[in-house]
């Protein structure tokens, strides 16, 4: 398989995984997250680091926001690692405040499958 075709296929897979990540976050879908998070997954948000189990427990709770959308997504494939950078917007349920966050998610291709190994979000109130 040539590099261009492989790269196009990988980009499509990673784009879908990014969409799944965002959708699963909005819907508190810990089950879907469990399907693509690596066993050694770590997430960092301001002041908090969570491992996979802690994140799945956290994400299963009702989300404090609505209307989560992503913008300016950039996917960079670096051999068997990919970085997804983006900007998210959402509305807080408590007070209707519009918020914005920046994120970078790291994926690694393990045994032919892309899995999320790390996530970092710079967001108020997370």
Automatic annotation (TrEMBL):
<dbReference type="Pfam" id="PF14534">
    <property type="entry name" value="DUF4440"/>
</dbReference>
<dbReference type="InterPro" id="IPR032710">
    <property type="entry name" value="NTF2-like_dom_sf"/>
</dbReference>
<protein>
    <submittedName>
        <fullName>Nuclear transport factor 2 family protein</fullName>
    </submittedName>
</protein>
<feature type="domain" description="DUF4440">
    <location>
        <begin position="16"/>
        <end position="115"/>
    </location>
</feature>
<dbReference type="InterPro" id="IPR027843">
    <property type="entry name" value="DUF4440"/>
</dbReference>
């Amino acid at each position: 398989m040539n590099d261009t075709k492989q790269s196009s296929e990988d980009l499509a897979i990673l784009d879908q995984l990014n969409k799944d990540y965002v959708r699963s976050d909005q819907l508190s879908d810990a089950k879907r997250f469990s399907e693509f998070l690596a066993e050694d997954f770590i997430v960092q948000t301001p002041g908090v680091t969570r491992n996979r189990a802690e994140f799945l427990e956290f994400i299963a709770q009702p989300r404090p926001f609505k209307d989560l959308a992503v913008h300016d997504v950039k996917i960079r494939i670096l051999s068997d690692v990919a970085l997804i950078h983006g900007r998210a917007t959402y509305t807080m349920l408590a007070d209707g405040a519009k918020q914005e966050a920046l994120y970078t998610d790291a994926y690694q291709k393990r045994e032919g499958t892309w899995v999320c190994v790390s996530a970092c979000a710079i967001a108020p109130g997370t």
